[in-house]
Amino acid sequence: MDGEKDLRARAEERSSGARGSHWLFRYRRLLQVAGCVGVCLPLAGVPFRAAAAVGARPSREEAPSHVIGGLRITPVEGESWLRHLGIPFVGSNMGRVGLWASPPLNASAQPSSGVGPDGEFLLSGADLYRLNCRSCHKADGAGVPPEINSLIGPVQATSPVMIRAQMKQRGIELDAKTVNKLASQAQTALRARLENGGVKMPPFRHLTREEVKALLAYVEELAGIPGAERKQIWLSEPAARVGELLIKGTCHICHEATGPGLAISVAMPGAIPSLASLPRDRIRSEVIRKVREGLSRPMPMMPSDRGEMPIFSELEPAEVAAAYAYLVGYPPRP
Amino acid sequence: MKRFLCGVLFALATVPLLAGGIHGRVACAGQSDNGGAVVYVAKVPGKTFPPPKDHATMDQSNRVFLPHVLPVLVGTTVDFTNADPYLHNVFSPEACADKFNLGTYPKGEKRSHTFRKECFAPVLCIVHPEMEAFLAVLPTPYFGVTKPDGSYDVRDVPDGSYTVKVWHPKLKGSEKSVAVHGATEADFQIAR
Asked: Does residue A156 lie in a domain region?
């Protein structure tokens, strides 16, 4: 009961902390500086730099900030991940289970950090998880076994504290060297999985070191690793990067980069229009509605016929708009 | 002719019963079934057994080590395979098993360890804490594992008098002297 009380108290503390803070605006000056670097350079075709705010929740207002390494935005290209795997859309849960669960209480239930006054997004690890991982691994990280594996076990295995606790439950005392070795191996394996993908998981090589750091800090929190809340970091990134992450991390699982557009959905019910066709065939507000609320497909058989595309209400309108702008600014390639 | 054929069939049917060995049942008190107990000949006086050339195998499939209990002779190399489409890690905290740690590896990969000392060692996967198996590294090649009904069969034991022991992952072991003459029966009862 005490544990339950603790969890509730922590959740309430986080919740009130999120409501009461105006950290985005307290960092306005920082974001303005970072935004100049982050937004202007990619427009000029030069790799941009993003800013990271690093801190320990709940006092993230006090977190120090620094500029992180450069990264480059590239167009999405090639076949969808499902086509790459040879799996039909109707036979898979990949890319469509983002709403099947809620984040557990022990993880920060953060809303999107949103857009700052200068157009920069401030992304937390939770945001990166939402843009890249949630549509397959669900909000709670449990996945949909056996098709989509849970990430909780592999993440818990990276924590010496969790390893000790798990072994203690079995009545086994491990020495520090063994524990650290096991944790280190699991950490290496987890990073390799993110970098190279797995049997069904796509590789996420486009993530920067800082993005990986933020993401791993969040999944540690999701996995209930003690102290993970103090490792959270926030990255200031331009809209184009947010769009790139969303398109590559979520949309490209089902949508081909190039190919037929909406007309294919009319001619062949169940067919999926390409990413390249979206800015051509739909205006931005339509895409935002389609993604977040669902929208009838062209010439529906029934008024409620919105096709097979899942609803992604966990995404913010600004994030979908960023994805739309990314498709316009960085046209997909075959 | 008929008599001859009947004789041949009778001979074939009785050969396994007459071959040397120990069989019987182990009753495991308080367990859901009687499987997973290792019955083995503790020592054969004046005889040593070279490490076998053939490797034993423990697979990981659907987050389960298979088999759950694997008896091997001292010196045996065990291949730990991964049939699951995700990463597994294989290690043991037991010093007698060299605290082996094969790291984390994907489907289709196989990593091995040679067990050089007598040992009863848990085998664990740090990625999936629910996974557990046991290695019984034994001094003689005369061993068997009980089926869920408690029956076991230790084959090809030469005639003689031996101490036969029983080991179980959760229960206290047991032992008794058994005089083996052909197919010999020995039952055991073990409890916490």
From this structure: no
